[in-house]
Amino acid sequence: MKFFSKCMSVFSVLCLLVGCSSTSIKLQKESFLVELGNPISVDAKTYLDKDSDKSLLKETTITFEENDLYMVDKQRKILTSTTGEYLPVGKYHAKARHGKIEKEFVVEVKDTTAPKFIDFKAEISIEVGAEVKLEDYFKAEDLSQVTISINKDELNLTKEG
User: What is the pTM of this model?
Assistant: First the structure.
């Protein structure tokens, strides 16, 4: 009986130790969306479940696949572009790592904000038969490249109106 009791005690202690040492990383989700022009964080708090233990948040590292498009600004805890003002549209693959445990996730940069017209004119005057360059009349700005075009099938410059 003593042997059984000692075995149970050892087993209980082992279970307790294994249970305490097996920290689980729980992500908020597997894919995150960032608007073009906004920074991508490398802080674990951004990606791990809000109920995660403080020590887990502090000890978990976030790493992104190596790429020539960006580098990590350790002071600000963000990825910064090496090619322009902001990170280009696309998917950025990352890992949350705590000890030997890793969880993979994706941060996707998208441009969902429409371009903004600058000094928009509701009406313009053009001479009959003139060649029209819309860029002379309308200007727009956006973080992505903006092109203004017109459906020439719907534009009749041979008569007034």
Answer: 0.72
